[in-house]
């Protein structure tokens, strides 16, 4: 590849892979690199540096540009510090990721929670500035954009809808509460309710339900109702124009949107107030090939 006008780099650091993008000033992706993520503080830094080095080789540019990072866990965006990213082996003291990676790369680095980074990527891809990105993965959490800007909250907890208790008689949640939405409306909850031998319980469940299996239909509908409850809470709180479904379970694509929309329509059939808000009509699933978290991370680097 010949020289290109790269203005920022975005890294989506996940438990299994790290995706890196080189992006120009219009938000166009000009290069993309994936590598397995090495666990632990040193492994995360090593993997990120290797991805940037490969992007430099692919683009033929030194990439002395800002680097944005989206990473799971509790992220202090102002300080660039990450805590409790368990799937990355970051379980001890806080990791000053911004400073360590900036020293390694020789460029400015911005660090953000991965759901928030994905929210910015979804805003850029859809063109909707008032947007909720609902990540349905191992857990359940949302990123909130208001007029195109992230809303994190005073403690960075805005959008932690998965930890809203909805069933006092429900299951214990990892957060210490009981009956949280995450215990019924997350990838881990779905896997527990529909255990399979392979790594794709969501696909297996929806396929069985589509084939008419009564038990699968019941499990699918309970899961969809839980996600619909999260959508309802978010829409009644921030009233976004669009709710983008993301995370690992969203790899199901439109069947997921249809199931959640059906649950929302069922709820609205008994509540004219909800019916007037057209919550089901706000749902959207982006194509699986759109790397919203890495794209959003790259856009972080372009912001003042």
TrEMBL record:
<dbReference type="InterPro" id="IPR043129">
    <property type="entry name" value="ATPase_NBD"/>
</dbReference>
<dbReference type="InterPro" id="IPR000600">
    <property type="entry name" value="ROK"/>
</dbReference>
<dbReference type="Pfam" id="PF00480">
    <property type="entry name" value="ROK"/>
</dbReference>
<protein>
    <submittedName>
        <fullName>ROK family protein</fullName>
    </submittedName>
</protein>
<comment type="similarity">
    <text>Belongs to the ROK (NagC/XylR) family.</text>
</comment>
